[in-house]
Design brief:
- The chain contains 12 helices and 3 strands, in the order αααβααββααααααα.
- The chain is mainly α and about 290 residues long.
- A hairpin with a 3-residue loop joins strand 2 and strand 3.
- Helix 9 runs antiparallel to helix 10.
- About 20% of the residues are buried.
Amino acid sequence: MSRRAQASAETGVPGTGAGGYRVPPQPAVADVNRDRGQDRHRDRSRERFQGGAAGAGSGAARGEHTHGETPLPRSRPVVQRASVRGQILDALRTALVTGELTPGEVYSAPALGDRFGVSATPVREAMQRLATEGAVEVVPNRGFRVVERGARELAELAEIRALIEAPVITRLARTVPVERWAGLRPLAEATVRAASSGCRAAYAESDRAFHGAVLALSGNEQLVRIADDLHRRVQWPLGGPPTPRVRAELLADAAQHTALLDALIAGDPDVLATVVSDHFAAPPPTRPRHP
């Protein structure tokens, strides 16, 4: 028997060759190459899976592009842009409260951009936000005019705040534990320190933080948001440098925060009613723009 016939006999494949057996047909070259390619693909896939699971040694583990993954477009620096806009918005709010931006005056986005060392775009976006809050109004082809508050408008806003906040505080006095009220003491003390500095911007922020924390105990996020918007509108704009009269007004307002907490902790409804009435019925601290 020939070597080929002997090899064929050992395979046990029936055929018509010598000894009743034949040699199995050899695969075509193309089929061999195809099978080898599939093997290599499976090996690479296995390596990627194992490498990703192990956390090292593969492109997937390093966050690189891998086979079969659709590349994502490069993202724009949205976070940085939003951060700049937020900083400009805070700076403009401070300038409004302190009177650095004069009521009735028109300011352009490019001029304010030069002032803050940024482009006009984030300034324009911030001013548009302030327009929705009622602090400024758009002047076509010129810029933004700082809104002038009249005594009647401020009184109306204060009345709306009283209608919203006073009943909520009275209701919370019956349900909120004493320790929760005591936890707000640092915020009340912060308003006193801000008032002592005579800085309207600092007091405005601490005042809103205290009232927001009180209303947050209701668990009503919409209430907190609406009340904060009204509170901010009352604070626009109060221009001019601090004077002793302004500092005294701020200290009196801050002292009511401490008195409010004292009444809530003591659980005295009569004292609470008096403090709430005084705090919200009185007009917000104001003074002429030109002392």
